[in-house]
Specification:
- The complex is a heterotrimer of chains A (203), B (160) and C (146).
- With 203 residues, chain A is α+β, with helices and mostly antiparallel strands.
- Chain A is built from 4 helices and 8 strands; from the N terminus they run ββααααββββββ.
- Chain A has 2 domains: 155 residues, Hotdog Thioesterase (Thiol Ester Dehydrase, Chain A, Roll), CATH 3.10.129.10; 34 residues, no CATH class.
- In chain A, the strands form 2 sheets. In chain A, strands 2, 3, 4, 5, 6 and 7 form a 6-stranded antiparallel sheet that branches.
- Chain A is elongated.
- With 160 residues, chain B is of the alpha+beta class.
- Classes of the chains: A alpha+beta (203), B alpha+beta (160), C alpha+beta (146).
- β3 of chain A pairs antiparallel with β2 of chain C, so a sheet runs across the interface.
Chain lengths: 203, 160, 146
């Protein structure tokens, strides 16, 4: 293990380490992003590419003949795909994750994440999600979405990744007919990467 | 050695193989965003001519286990003879008609030539295989012909 | 792989019944293609080992959308194409790294009728050799014999 830098070692009863200031994220809770449209329409290619990786042979997703005779009347996407069309295209995604340049800096959840980063909770990992499937997704659909900052933990959690706060994001996905296709609560952990401070027992 | 059988397959052409996907906006955009770099928007009404070979790529799953076509058999013969490495050497493309959104491409592969004996190329020992791809669209029009030369080579593991 | 003719009826499902176990080798192809090709996720921790190490992980690891897709496929493989996913909740624990092998198992927890549909609740668990990767709860609507 690397030698601890002297200035990072705090006596065990030191109270100078700042506690997360919840009041800084509170104004964003309950606020939503604008509605945005997916960068591509839903295509049969997207569906086949998903199915060939997941090894999902469900004929509803691939077989025109079979799907026509089903209650859906045609090919549908696996419902678990709902979020796919809301992900950032390549360059914007790399800027976000590598250069830390947010694609939508004014979004309430983005401002909350930036605030978490500023307070040292810069790690992020997806931990949980719940999806509800309302209407089928079909080739040719345009999927739009809106994100609401649903909840932020009011106290620190001690996790395998480090000390952190859970942030719940609520997504609503709609198609071009304004029908809800899916709703999702997406929980991420904003955590303090472990090498930020060390506490040592003296004596 | 089974390699003499490879010579017998020279001049043989595959059956018509359907591309697993139709030409779609998503595929065109995904290709353009890497190849052309970031832009305000990418033209997804037609595919760049260099993209055509993408529709000949085999699906990840379900996997085709048995090589039934002449070119697949040639490659399998070379794999089994210890030339498991594959390296692209040249791609000569003739772009005859544009590939448009919604096209369903099909293609045939002809085995043009296989080295008669082991050669050395790009600091590797192996056999050169030249394949001719002919792409057609749903109207039966030839959109492209592509001559693809690969080197099937002995990998380090196989050489020892 | 789902069979076209497989059709699981609500009446034939018993509470406490186990789903058949399946297993999948987790390799670089599944992790990188799952992220970029299937789920359009360019986060480099899923396809760039150097970047993943920079972020504190030993290697690239599976993204949550791929985990979600694998669980969804496991469920509809069991029911056949007439089983309909209504709700799926998943929680992640141990990551899936290249070289891991994940087994998927499930148990039927509940069975009921609601809003004209015949529903089942299934508890799913995906484990690799290091422990649980995903635990989840799904609600599915099944066809009835009438």
């Amino acid at each position: 293990m690397a030698k601890l830098p002297q200035e990072k070692i705090l006596p065990f009863n030191d109270t100078s380490e700042k506690v997360f200031d919840y009041s800084k994220v509170e104004p964003f809770i309950g606020k939503s992003s604008p509605w945005r449209e997916g960068h591509d329409i839903v295509t049969k290619s997207d569906i086949r590419h998903w199915c060939e990786v997941m090894r999902d042979g469900n004929p509803l997703y691939a077989d025109e003949e079979y799907a026509k005779k089903s209650k859906y009347g045609g090919i549908i996407a696996p419902p678990t795909m709902a979020q796919v069309w809301s992900l950032e295209p390549m360059h914007a995604a790399l800027r976000q994750f590598v250069n830390e340049i947010e694609p939508h800096p004014d979004d309430p959840h983005t401002q909350c994440f930036v605030e978490c980063n500023n307070q040292g909770y810069s790690g992020v990992v997806a931990t949980e999600q719940e999806q509800v499937y309302v209407n089928p997704i079909r080739p040719g659909d345009t999927i739009s979405w809106q994100l609401t900052l649903h909840r932020v933990s009011t106290y620190d959690h001690f996790t395998r990744m480090g000390i952190g706060r859970y942030v719940d994001l609520k997504y609503t996905f709609k198609n071009q007919r304004d029908e809800v296709v899916s709703e999702m609560i997406f929980r991420v952990l904003k955590y303090k990467p472990t090498q930020t401070t060390w506490r040592a027992y003296k004596g | 050695m089974g390699l003499s059988q490879a010579q017998k397959l020279v001049g043989k052409e595959s059956s018509v193989i359907r591309a697993p996907d139709e030409v779609s906006t998503s595929d065109i955009r995904h290709y353009r965003e890497i190849v052309e770099g970031e832009k305000e928007s990418w033209d997804t009404s037609a595919a760049p001519p260099t993209m055509t070979m993408a529709w000949a790529m085999e699906a990840l799953w379900p996997e085709k286990v048995k090589p039934t076509e002449p070119h697949e058999q040639v490659l399998k013969l070379l794999d089994d003879a210890g030339y498991g490495g594959t390296m692209g050497i040249a791609l000569d493309q003739e772009c005859i008609k544009p590939v448009r959104l919604g096209d369903q491409l099909s293609f045939k592969v002809m085995v043009v030539s296989v080295s008669s004996s082991e050669e050395e190329a790009e600091a590797r020992k192996g056999y050169m295989v030249t394949l001719l791809y002919t792409f057609t669209n749903q109207k039966g029009e030839v959109v492209s012909t592509q001559t693809y030369t690969i080197l099937k080579f002995k990998t380090l593991a196989q050489s020892s | 792989m789902a069979e076209k003719t497989k059709k699981l009826y609500w009446e034939d499902v018993k509470v406490g019944q186990d789903l058949p176990e399946t297993a999948r080798d987790v390799d670089y192809t599944l992790i990188a293609c799952g992220a970029v090709w299937a789920t359009h996720d360019f986060m480099p921790v899923h396809h760039d080992p150097e970047f993943a190490k920079l972020k504190g992980a030993p290697n690239v690891f599976m993204n949550i959308l791929t985990t979600n897709g694998l669980v969804g496929a496991y469920l509809t493989d069991w029911t056949g194409p007439e089983g309909e996913l209504k709700k799926l909740r998943i929680g992640l624990a141990v990551p899936n790294f290249p070289g891991d092998r994940m087994t998927l198992n499930g148990t039927v927890e509940k069975k009921w009728e609601e809003g004209g549909e015949r529903l089942v609740q299934i508890r799913v668990i995906g484990e690799n050799q290091m422990g649980p990767h995903v635990t989840g709860t799904a609600v599915m609507a099944l066809p009835t014999k009438g």
